[in-house]
């Protein structure tokens, strides 16, 4: 899965180099930053990514204003459940250093999703933010320009802000809501 932040871009590039037919799942919530869509288009063209997009089945409008969990359920969770329906494994760019809720992430985890076993694979779990940046820059891989503007983690524009000095990488997501 790719959100077109730094780790996801690195994984998409790696997958394209190893096996170009690898399906790259992209959840289009309908509320992504214009820069995210532009980067998606550039990377698909440049690396011939086999991008498979999933969108919400309904548009609840600005539900994020009153119910962030409900909004994410419609725009992210349900489309991801559909996307995972045909797969036995899910590869993602989650890293341990992204914040306290991810500090114990292992490279391979086994979960039940939709009542069936699913391997969650996090090849970059032990990489640091600096290692991700080094990889992107060393390979000349394009990245989201919002990362240069203080956005350490990218999501939907209504629920994402730039992080402040000293905050963990995901502090700009659902800021002030208690949601992680």
| Quaternary organisation of the protein chains | single chain
Share in helix: 25-40%
Order of helices and strands: HEHEHEEEH
Tally of strands: 5
> Number of helical runs?
4
Distance between the termini: 18 Å
Identify the strand order in the major beta sheet: 3-5-4
Q: Give the amount of beta strand, in percent.
A: 5-15%
Ranges where pLDDT stays below 50 over 5 or more residues in a row are none
How much is the radius of gyration in Å? 16 Å
Strand-pairing-aware structural class: alpha/beta
The averaged pLDDT comes out at 93
Shape: globular
Biggest sheet character = 3 strands, mixed
What this model shows, in words?
The protein has 180 residues and is an alpha/beta fold. The chain contains four helices and five strands, in the order αβαβαβββα. The strands form two sheets. The chain has a three-stranded mixed β-sheet, with no helix packed on it. A two-stranded parallel ribbon has the order 1-2. Helix 2 links the parallel strand 1 and strand 2. Helix 1 (6-18) packs across helix 4.
